[in-house]
Design a protein that fits this description.
By secondary structure, this protein is α/β, with parallel strands linked by helices. It has 6 helices and 7 strands, in the order βαβαβαβααβαββ.
Amino acid sequence: MAPAPPHPVLPRLTLVLGGARSGKSRHAEALVTALPPPWTYVATAQAFDAEMTDRIAQHKARRTEGWQTLETSHDLAHLVRASGDSGTPMLIDCLTLWLSNVMLADMDVPARCAELIDALRSANGPIVAVSNEVGLGIVPDNALARAFRDAQGRLNQDVAAVADRVILMAAGLPLTLK
């Protein structure tokens, strides 16, 4: 009897970027579930309205048995520090909603982002982080939206710099950048 094929290796940190409905979350979930369970799903969304409640429910329904869900809207660095060395594959979905939560709570964005980068840099993983690529559209028409776009672009660059692999999703197709 031949031995079972080895499980695919997931790098310590993978960043999956893409636009809205590009297939980011599905691809990230597939990367994580290629490894044996259990898996940790870190949810950063807050349900402020019915539409977001429905989106969260759809994401939950897609997850099979084997997922443990942790939720954080602001303290992602702490959660990564607490769980990022467990050896359990972790999916963070998503950095964009986390950053939005931090900005809307009027927190120190550069400090919070630096804490997160430090936590991701020192975690043993494997971690897959999902984030939106927000810099491909038009210049936003208000100061808050421009500040968010700029902060998200900086965060994506900083996470990509410490990531072992970076994947850009477009039309459901992955393009490996790093």
